[in-house]
Amino acid sequence: MQTVNSTMNEYLYRFLKKVNIIVFNMFIIDIINVILYKKFMNDKNFFLRPTSEWQRRYEALRASFVERLPAKAVADRYGYSQSYVNLLRHQFIHEKIDFNEPPPTTDKSKRRRVDSVTRSKICNWREQHLSAGEITQLLSEDGVEISIRTVERILTEEGYPKLPRRTRLKIGITTKGAEVPASSEPIAISQLSKRSLDCEIGGVFLFAPFIEKLNIHQVLKEARLPESKLIPALNYFLSFLALKLIGTERYSHTGDHSFDAGLGLFTGLNVIPKCTAMSTYSYSLDPVHLLRLQKGFVKQASKLGLYNKHIINLDFHTVPHFGEDSELETHWAGARNKRMKGALTLFAQDADSKLILYTGADIRRDEADDQVLQFLSFWKSVQKGVKPTLIFDSKFTTYTNLSVLNAQGIKFITLRRRGKNLLDQVSSLKPWKRINIPHDKRKYPNPYVYESLITLKGYQGELRQIVMKGNGHENPAFLISNDLESPVELLVSNYSRRWRVENVISESMKFFSLNALPSPILTKVHFDVVMTMIADTLYSMLADKLRGFEDCDAPKVFRHFVRGKAKVKVNTNNITVTYPRRAHNPILRAVPWHRLPTNISWLENCQLNLKFK
């Protein structure tokens, strides 16, 4: 019995010993796993949370190119902005980032020490205007390997300022065989004597006689537009105008004409200015310059009899802006049938000639109602004694401002804001009168009208109300006017032609790229709108001389007459522009060019000869 117990105790002892060993081993394994996990997490964090800036940039680019994460996700992970991530991608693609350099350190004791001989070499090379990268390469050829950052530090310690930024042309790293456009500068006709130039859009010279007829040189002189050290205001203006006339959408597209010497000659330059110069100049303009420019131009156009001046259509238009960072207000955009961010602009159009004679762009929502008074002030400054009839829609201004117009003797025709109660009263009105509106191609020329005199809140006196139905609309229109004497047919006819200003705006959006905002800065937008007004007037003047095309819009005139190449030959006292054979050349030959100005003032009064094969 005793032997059996001792045997069982021995087995139990061995079993417990094995269990303890297993438990102990498991405990040890757990400890090892914890240590390894911590080490793994530390190693993982080395990549996910880099401490040095160079590694952060590296990991950000790796996530962008290898993991193909979007810029926003990369920016959130590594603490960058989205735009900076895009910049890093651009620099990496163009090999402007070097990850071989050691991370920078702020510990001065760990900085690389450079001997006096090397330091002297660095200073001597900087005296030759070499960059830090070029100096590093020369040192490497001499067997001295130091980083660009070290060279920059030594130059800073020696008191050398940073070199000004140099173009790829000056550095000498342009693409082999690539043409580099020349810098814009005024050109003398004597420099081009007996030379032939190619002009990609030679039709731009067709506008030169009309520009001279409008006396643009004097207009700009009175407007006192700013100019740069190299390029006068007139040449800048003609550069902007030329781009408008040939339908260039944005300033950034001027590079398409950087080698066109013929287009440059039209502006009085060797080539038109580059995008940056054009954009910088437009920022130098302010509302005072633009107002003087408009006044001078409208006065000259009025002297030529381009405006009838009896009826003027007014309308707002929202030029949309699709950028994210913009402080522009939201306005109603009728073309898109919604409210959107953009610049609110105003157009005033001469109803008979369909020419724009006033624009405004720096308009905020709380200033919109008073724009009719602003236009009236402008009109009095350029056309004293002429009181036109203003036509606009119901939401253009307030009834109080209508009373101000009436007090100043200005006639107007507009729509009354109709509500449910006003529409319910239509069924009880009688008798109705049938009238005829003698407009060509009008679908409903014989509407019914009902006349009465009414009073409105905020308006002092009585207004003439004309309720019109049977004009193709579901609900009747309520016209109101302070003209109590004119026949009802004339009032309805004049208001029905208000669509002309909408057509001109639509044309400007398409051909003159009015919806392509150059900038969210309203003054710059206003300059673009003013240039559109001037270009549209020039197209109208040219079309008026083209037999059979008098009423054509700018896109059609451009397509048939302006677009196309031409050969420009320059002599001492004359410039000859020869146009190749085209289907519409007989119409251009029939234009009485000899009755238009032939001496071009901004080209040293050279005589312009236009020849059509």
Query: What general outline do the C-alpha atoms trace?
Result: globular
Q: Low-confidence stretches at least 5 residues in length (pLDDT < 50)?
A: none
Number of strand segments: 15
Radius of gyration: 38 Å
| Domain count | 4
Largest sheet: 10 strands, mixed
Query: Beta-strand level of the residues, as a percent range?
Result: 5-15%
SS-based class: alpha+beta
Helical residue percent band: 40-55%
Structural description of this entry:
- The chain has 613 residues and is of the alpha+beta class.
- It folds into four domains: 92 residues; 58 residues; 201 residues, no CATH class; 184 residues, no CATH class.
- It is 42% helix and 15% strand.
- It contains 22 helices and 15 strands.
- The strands form two sheets. Strands 2, 3, 4, 5, 6, 7, 8, 9, 10 and 11 form a ten-stranded mixed sheet that branches. Strands 1-12-13-15-14 form a five-stranded mixed sheet.
- α16 links the parallel β6 and β7.
- α3 packs across α4, α6 crosses α7 and α11 crosses α20.
- The mean pLDDT is 81.
